[in-house]
Amino acid sequence: MTTSTIDAESILAVEIGSTLTRAALFDVVEGVYHFIASGSATSTVDAPFHDAGECVHLAIEDLQTITGRQLLDKDARIILPGKSDGSGVDRMAMSISAGPTLRVINAGLLDDVSLQSGQNLIATAKARVIDNFGLSDARSTDEKIDAIIRAEPDLIILTGGTQQGASRSVLKMVELIMMSCRILPETSRPEVIFAGNRVLAKRIKEVLGKWFSVHTAPNVRPLIDLEDISPAEAVLTNVVTRIRTSQIGGLKELGKACTAPLTPAPQAFGRIVRFLSEIYNPNKGVMGIDVGASSTTFSVAVAGGLTNKVYPVGLGSSIKDILEFYEPAEIIQWMDIPLSEDSLVSYLWQKSINPGSQPLDHTAMAIEQAVTRMILRHAMQEIKAKWRENWEDEVSFEPILAGGAVLTNAPTPAQSLLMILDGLQPVGISTIILDQNTLTASLGTIAAFNPILPVQVLESGAFLNLGTVICPVTKARYGTPVLNIRMEHENGFKETFTIKQGSITALPLRMGETATIALDALRGTEIDPNGNRANTFKIIGGVCGAVIDARGRPIQLPKEDGRRRELLKKWQNTLENR
Amino acid sequence: MIILAPVTHIVPLTKVRRARLLPTNGRVLVKAGQSVTASDVVAETRLQNKHTLVDVQRDLNMTSAAETREVIDRKLGERVQEGDVIAETGRLFRRVVRAPVSGVIVMISSGQVLMEADQPPFRLKAGLDGEVTEVLPEQGVMVETNGALLQGVWGNGKISQGLLLNLTQSAGDELTPPKMDVSMRGAIGFAGWCGRPEALEIAAQLPLRGLILGSILPGLIPLAEKMDLPIMVLEGFGQIAINHIAYDLLITNVQRSIALNTAPWNRFTGSRPEAIITLPAPAESSPEIDIFKPGQTIRVQTAPYCGQTGILSNILPGLTTLDNGLRTQAAIVRLRENNEITVPLANLDVLQ
Questions:
Q1: Looking at the complex, does the CB of residue B303 fall below 8 Å from at least one CB of chain A?
Q2: A187, A288, A540, B135 — which has fewest CB within 10 A?
Q3: Is the residue at A234 inside a domain?
Q4: pTM
């Protein structure tokens, strides 16, 4: 793309996180958009500031210092649009992941149908279901009213009824919501989204609209056996933004300066993953993971169809919540140093009250990396469970886009890569891309008004190729050869490798170097379940070269502690010392 | 990156001004200028926590909500006693619907009456000994005092006051049952850390009026949350001693009256557990916001130096590589024991 086809404009993208706020500057250099630099500052959304404007200004100030470009005027206002002297920026975009986890009530009809779809819709936002209300709920009406009031919800999602389907039961639920929330003080009343039987939408808006902000969305279950969340997700995104704007000081004013509406970071992140799925192999999915401080976003898209999930576990304030899903021993098993369960649990609690703190020693680093593996594992297992409803086989992803400070700030790229491989345990052939500058959500926000910029920045060096990974699927026994590899370098040099089941191997490929590899699968080994790739193809070396992960799926760690730790060290060394 | 310094107040004398607000509008019971103690109730309100729905239309077998509305004798907001008639038909064979509970009618809609049952009101305590400086009508009050202030990192949401007592020999000692006896009844005690449920149970049985701990094992949190005994944790979780500055401050004030408000720490709202020892001396407010600078008294918040205090000697330029390979913005800190360590700025809070 040349300047002749784009309006040359500089864009400032701000992401307000729960711990840090980042300001990234993009501009046109030699006809192509580039990421220039980013500045960051402690987020000031929480007390005692209660003002998003403060951290945005600090982050821009930092960016100003880094770039030497004047972005704020003498009154500390953002210079918008840019001036002919090069100061300021032409446009601004903003995403947000800060703010308390939203408290949501999920109301619907059948547990496995509309309530499940409501649950899936809520999981696309940084939100927690406080209570569910469905037809099978045995509580009395009095108890339900009290439960709704006690829940102090920010939002109620009401689903139920296929198109032209049930209406009476839905209206009874409307009555319950109305009775419960009408008696709340006006300032405490939740927003309501109705995403059920469309025939009722107008009536529900009339009935509830007298008392609440009611938003109607397309039915999440248009047919009993068909779930379609995406259209309702767009409505939810708008409502979440509304709630955030009312919760967080300074957001409204900042929003006015932006070209596109303020976007929740998970939706902005998912937008880029969906975009990538439209340009990559349609038979494979594209996966994006972003391990944040208060939550983790997991986005999977196939040929433009996006599944976005926000898990309320991150590496900061919510880190101890990983214990809701895994026993301490399951986390410790991924550490190559000994640690008692009590010490692990204490560390997680301590970190949760100091969410911005950094691992200070080897033990702390090992704990946080082990927790990251478990967060990724949990998210991947849930995605796989959902996937199996439609696909019988294992799913492979190309590429896998990974972000989050624990991955981007890891001491070595090999550590980042191994966390991703151990956690996600992908199958088939994937390229692992690291969002080293934390740009994905910002690009997603910019994409709303400038679709060219994300494309050009993704193709630039702003993202780090960790490497191509080949994860064959096999039932062969440990130690038996499963793959023969012939690799021909650009200079004609040829090498062969025999890969044994249970091993991880780093192929000697330099960053950016292209090689042709030919794979011979042995003993019924499948190289890529849905890749449709020929057995001979070109690969480009990433910062970790190329990696053959034949450790089996799921990875089975030795039960004996000493052996297990040795093996973890060996895997790490294999990738570090290639 | 611009890192702002989180501030924790552990200070021997400061002006403390706290807003004490009801969760919903209610009645303020004190006047501006009035002196209050931590346990005094300053405002009260009804909490909407128990409702009863009376389906008048169904009970009277009426055909429409409009028809039912005409036979409901009560108005919105009206108080009724259990057994009072709330609806009746005026026909020859009179039928009535009676209030199943005493309470207030909060809604009449769709042929139904929603009643809010009478409950003991929610009583808001002052939370600190001091003077009411401002009344916020229907919402609460501002209370102000001068004294020593210690802020914690975890609390179980209770309020009390009592005489301050030292329960252990040193800042790092574990609180065990033998360290408590009936002579301590009514006191607020402090100890290094707690790892046994029986220690908390004994403290509650005596009863102590509160506990200030350096740290607590995470496994005890569910028990501590259920207890009426106010518990505040100063450092965190595990076996962390009370930091020296806080310990010296507590030791200095033993046998003085201390007010303990163990509100859970909510970073978003800013509410935080804290203990206040009111002192008859003039004082200035301590700043809530700061930036890191050499000479500050700081505390390390993470292992392996968790709870240790020292002086920030130097902020290192750019990024520093730690022993574990992490590259981060860091500072040199001279700990109280005089050894120097390199710590990420993000792991420090400023004590002032």
A1: yes
A2: A187
A3: yes
A4: 0.92
